[in-house]
Amino acid sequence: MYQISKNHIAVPPGETIKEQLEIWEITKAEFLSRMGMTEDEIEALLEGDMALTPDIASRLESALSIDKGFWLGLEGLYREDLKKVEEENARMKKRTRS
């Protein structure tokens, strides 16, 4: 799920995963099988609620033929952007209380 502040947006790697599944017409069942993960785990990954670890990046590389480094890079950018969104929203909330 996207996280938004006034000046930032954080897009989880799951959005790119969803796009790839659609492009390659990979069903949810097939993706679950390729990833060796539960449906709940995949949902959390797609929504950005589960960190994309090196192990998951390796699984994605095998499942989607996209380099592990690409996935880890996306995860790093997402976490950086998420921190910016959270910090900005906290500052805005603090200002409105003052």
From TrEMBL:
<dbReference type="GO" id="GO:0003677">
    <property type="term" value="F:DNA binding"/>
</dbReference>
<dbReference type="InterPro" id="IPR010982">
    <property type="entry name" value="Lambda_DNA-bd_dom_sf"/>
</dbReference>
<protein>
    <recommendedName>
        <fullName>Transcriptional regulator</fullName>
    </recommendedName>
</protein>
